[in-house]
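ugh ok fine here u go
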Amino acid sequence: MNPSTNLSRRALFARTAATAVGAALAASSASLLGSCASLAAGGPVVTRGRLRHAAIGCGGMGESDLAQISAHGQVDVVALCDVDGERLEAAAQKHPGARRYRDWREMLAKEDGALDSVHVSIPDHMHAPAMIGALRAGLHVYGQKPLTRTVREARAVAAAARGAGTATQMGIQNRAAPYYRQALALLRAGHIGAVHEVHVWTDRPAGWWPQGVERPDGEDPVPSALEWDLWLGVAPMRPYVKGNYHPFAWRGWRDFGTGAQGDMACHLMDPALWFLELGAPRRIRSEGPPPGPDSYPLWSRVHYEFAPTPHTKGDPVLLTWHDGGKMPRTQLDEIEAGDDVWKNACLFLGEKGALLASPYDPPRLLPESRFAGVELPEVEDRQHWHEWVDACLSGKRLASGFDYSAHLTEVALLGNVALHHPHTTLDWDGRSGQFRQAEANRFLHEPYRRGWEVKGL
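structure:
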């Protein structure tokens, strides 16, 4: 393939990326064409037969994502990036030929033309900058959930993905597991009839990470292996305090994470949007304590109203999110669910019964006495991460690409916005991306720290 024949598309990506990740990223884009071509029926695909992959995040879910992606027989891990040198070294032991970086911006600039794809598996506040940088460089991107930390970021990532046309996928691997697809088959078979109400709940954050707490006092020495300024990234500067942020406790802090709803709704609310094909919510109302200055509350309950779809009955369609151990106990008792109910689940209430779905257990039709003769449908096994790799290689479109994933993330994060206005109904205009109540719009995004600005945000 002659790279000059397709230069304009990739060059445009790299030049646009300059404002997002620094001028160096735009230095050279023609070489990216050495491995990719554009398909009329899909996005750019790898034509060399193997995917040259880089990791942005090598610990935690980054370690898991790297292991899953690299297990595909047509993947070569050529670069690794992590702000934590110990995590980087551990990944390098498994991929000794990969080049190592601490700053993903440097990696994208220096590896221009040597990469086809990246995964972004780092704290929530850095998802959007890294994903947008990679997409504007014309790369295939796998991103951890939630897709972003703010609503406006979700829309910006979706726009960047549309512009890139590359294969994208968010880390909602439960879609590929059998339990959700069995639940979908039961719903589509009409066992519970049209759905009028949905409840979704999680046991997070209790026992997982701190929420409802104040910012810790004092300061500890930054570990020699950790690049603290790079870890903070777009977030405001604050002192390092051991055990409070890196490597995992960041999820409950507003500057870095998205709390229980942001963390788990992308898994547990997914069936509601997916099965019922729900669009943007019309109205949102929260109850419970508001967030503190620095962290999310210990529990929340958020009520959504959606427009009806072909799979629902009544207007509006009601969806309620519960976290911090809260559950729809009244509704569960009415359908004879019993006391031993899953701690993370999605409940569909229909005309003829109810469907209880969880990513961790087989689905249940309730009351069980009414559906005693119904067997679970058989579904095929699927490999979530390898489906994304296959899409990078073939140009096939994915159902959990960033177009859908941005929508799912936005719905979840709108609940976090509502937390700031408890017991107040907020009217959301999905087309404009604004609330009718202007005071709520300031929580759709916060400015980035100087030096980390991203064009369009």
